[in-house]
Amino acid sequence: MTFNSVGHQPIHNLHVPIVAGYTVLLTVSLVITRGAMTKLYHH
Prior knowledge:
mainly alpha, rod-shaped, 1 helix
């Protein structure tokens, strides 16, 4: 039981930065697609 909890903790700690990274990537991609859309509509 102790080994399982010790092995589970680093995975849980890594889970937060991964989710934050995906959120940033999604926001950046949304901004890029929105910018491309406005450029296409303007031209």
